[in-house]
Design brief:
The protein is of the alpha/beta class. 45% of the residues lie in helices and 11% in strands. It has two domains: 178 residues, Rossmann fold (3-Layer(aba) Sandwich), CATH 3.40.50.880; 116 residues, Arc Repressor Mutant, subunit A, CATH 1.10.10. A six-stranded mixed sheet has the order 2-1-5-6-10-9, with helices on both faces. A two-stranded antiparallel sheet has the order 3-4. Strand 7, helix 4 and strand 8 form a beta-alpha-beta unit. The longest helix is centred in the C-terminal third of the chain and has 19 residues. 41% of the residues are buried.
């Protein structure tokens, strides 16, 4: 894995993949940095990054991450764009954090796809590249071999998502615990709350989500969640959707599937028993949602990820 550090790089964006994929996590990732050429790359805020290699490193990488750089949309050297296109053509996975999406867009890697960037540059990205479906209010977008994330901390969500894809939920959770961060925020979760919703109101639903997580094996309704949050169902539904980017029942379903993923990785419980444990009732129901959300069966998932953590 190679982190491509461009002039004006945002220090936090560079540090996120370095921390998540660091070999000391014990999960087999190897991460290095490169620039247009080896040497010191000036970054945003007066810092500088010393990178050991130039663009030749991209020719060998299975995954390339392009952190954000300022100002948003600064022109990218032509040789960088060509190196990104070449890597994509041979099947490398390419991801961007924050304004890094502009480099992917200039290289043509986002044409015909959905993508995101920091919300304050989403309009600029859409105007410059109308062939891209820009999602201005999500944390990250996964288009398979090309992934994009919103600003700063959303890059952490994207990198943990990539770990989940590669190694499963347990590995991502372990890395998240080491970084003292939430192990899972769905890509569709809002980047920020609308101005009509105060920060205090947004935080007030965290306790209700935690409450629901301890009761996944029980029947969970919008009315029950609203009662716990001490809101009317209508108000709760609106605020929950604003805060998470999904309806309460969609969120509960995803939480149940993710909990089932952890049990498939870490136990030998039968699929029917896991379905009961997470509140999905029957094995056939669990298989249905697994196939719809993850495009694999529980048995296939277990064969791939069991014991990886």
């Amino acid at each position: 894995m190679v982190v491509l550090v461009l002039e004006g790089a945002l220090p936090m964006d560079v540090g996120i993949p370095a921390e998540v994929f660091h070999p000391e996590t014990g999960f087999g990732y190897e991460v290095s940095a490169c620039g247009v050429s080896a040497g010191t790359v000036p970054s945003h805020g007066g810092f500088g990054f010393t990178v050991p290699r130039g663009l030749d490193a991209l020719a060998e990488a299975d995954t390339i991450i392009v952190p954000g750089y300022a100002p948003a949309g600064r022109p990218v050297p032509a040789q960088v764009l060509e190196a990104l296109r070449s890597a994509a053509s041979r099947g490398a996975r390419i991801a961007s954090i924050c304004y890094g999406a502009f480099a992917l867009a200039e290289a043509g890697l986002l044409d015909g796809l959905s993508a995101t960037t920091h919300w304050d540059a989403a309009d600029k990205l859409a105007q410059r590249h109308p062939q891209i479906t820009v999602e201005p209010n999500v944390l990250f977008v996964d288009e398979g071999s090309v992934l994009t994330s919103a600003g700063a901390a959303a890059g952490l969500d994207l990198c943990l998502h990539m770990v989940r894809r590669d190694l499963g939920v347990s590995a991502a959770n372990e890395i998240a615990r080491g970084l003292v961060t939430a192990p899972y925020r769905a890509g569709g979760q809002a980047q920020y709350l609308p101005k009509s919703t105060s920060a205090g109101q947004g935080e007030s639903l965290a306790a209700t989500r935690e409450w629901a997580m301890t009761r996944l094996d029980e029947q969970i309704t919008v009315a029950g969640l609203a009662a716990h949050a001490r809101m009317s169902p209508r108000t709760f539904l609106r605020r929950f959707t604003e805060e998470t980017g999904s309806t309460p029942l969609q969120w509960v379903l995803r939480a149940r599937v993710d909990t089932a993923r952890e049990l498939l990785e870490s136990t030998r419980l039968p699929v029917d028993r896991i379905a009961e444990e997470v509140g999905l009732g029957t094995g056939s129901n669990l298989r249905l949602h697994f196939r719809r959300l993850l495009d694999v069966s529980p048995t296939e998932y277990r064969a791939t990820f069991a014991g990886r953590s």
